[in-house]
Amino acid sequence: MSIIRHFEDFTPGAIIELGSRSVSRDEIIAFASEFDPQPFHLSEEAGKASLLGGLAASGWHSAAIFMRLLVDGLLGQAAGQGAPGIDKLMWRRPVYPGDTLSATAEVLTSRPLRSRPGLGVVGFRFVVSNQRGETVMTLENPILFACREMPA
Question: Nearest Cα to 142, choosing from 119, 76, 101, 5?
């Protein structure tokens, strides 16, 4: 892994493209069978009978796909040190078989940690969209990054 981004590289207002990934019917059912076995995540018939209008991915599946995009598109090449949690997570639209999800990261805030010299916290807003440009999920959370150089 080559470290490309450190704390100093995140400027409020910057947008980072995180890539895309398609989701299949089989993936939706497999994830739901293991982690969220509600009927509308397991069969087309139950999905059609629900508010979702068809077989739809679990929101947690959408979040897991987002996490993969975040690692592949940003964290895998950054000096990330983890995150203290998620401040907001909202599922805006269902994700259906055949959808292709893409994600962006917007830097909202950036500040060094006084309590931990050499670390900074970057606040992000993430938007996950489908192939039609419709927002399916948003998240806001801080992520910790190592500084390129230790403060004097």
Answer: 119
How would residue 149 be classed by pLDDT, with cut points 50, 70 and 90? confident
Read off φ and ψ for residue 84, nearest 5 degrees.
-80, -5
Residue 49 is which amino acid? A
User: What is the side-by-side order of every strand in the sheet holding 119-129?
Assistant: 15-22, 100-112, 119-129, 135-146, 88-91
DSSP result, 49-60: TSTT-S----HH
pLDDT in tens, 10-37: 999 999 999 999 999 999 999 999 999 9
- 60-108 tens-digit pLDDT: 999 999 999 999 999 999 999 999 999 999 999 999 999 999 999 999 9
Q: 10 Å Cβ neighbour count for 110?
A: 19
Q: Angle at Cα 29 formed by Cα 94 and Cα 103, nearest 5°?
A: 45
Amino acid (one-letter) located at 73: G
Average pLDDT, the chain: 96
Question: For the chain, what are the domain ranges?
Answer: 7-146
Q: What is the CB-side half-sphere exposure of residue 35 using CA atoms within 13 A?
A: 12
CATH topology of domain 7-146: Thiol Ester Dehydrase; Chain A (3.10.129)
